[in-house]
Amino acid sequence: MPCCMPGVAAVPALLVCWSSAAFIISYVMAVLAGHVEPLVPYISDTGTKPPESGVFGFMINISALLAAITMYIRYLLIEKQNESSHFVRSSCNMFTLCVGLMGCTGMGIVATFQELAVPSVHDIGALVAFGSGVVYITLQSIISYKSCPRWNTHFVCHIRMAISVISCIAFIPMIVFASKISMTKIDWTPGEKVKSY
């Protein structure tokens, strides 16, 4: 079983390191090129203009692939644990995997269609990525509680659920504020009017 092979645990660590590098490298490139202000730009703003857009797109697509592999490994791990414990239905585990893979697809869309080049597709990709991510994290938290105490400690379950709650809370204002704005450019000058379409 691949989930029992040594070294598989390196995949989630690689995902975190690679994704962090993707955001940091594109941010540094965008700031040094003068394409964004250094103080807390949107993640997508740091991958809008060349040359950082190419780096951002490439690295985020690799992140989406690593995330999909990580989710598949988690799926296999739960299936293996479930053989002896029967703590969750296999269909629930498969549904959770599918939700996670939808989020990875959304990440790929965000990486491929830049924020200002094709804004509606980019926004749909972001909505799918973040929305599916929140649902995936919540479902994994529930599965963790069901597998407790044999496969997880209560502490780990509580941490996972806290991350789920924070993600849900953060997702709501993201939707509200994203629906109120329409990005047509990054650089604005004082007194400039917004184009209405």
Automatic annotation (TrEMBL):
Subcellular localization(s) per the UniProt record: Endomembrane system
Major location category of this protein: membrane
Keyword Transmembrane included in the entry's annotation: yes
Membrane-spanning segments: 54-73, 94-112, 124-143, 155-178
UniProt cross-references to InterPro entries, sorted A to Z: CWH43_N, DRAM/TMEM150_Autophagy_Mod
A Gene Ontology BP annotation from the UniProt entry: regulation of autophagy
Superkingdom, natural source: Eukaryota
Record's keyword terms, sorted: Membrane, Transmembrane, Transmembrane helix
A cellular component term, taken from the record's GO annotations: endomembrane system
Family named by the database record: Belongs to the DRAM/TMEM150 family.
Official protein name in the record: DRAM1 protein
Record lineage: Eukaryota, Metazoa, Chordata, Craniata, Vertebrata
Protein encoded by which gene: Dram1
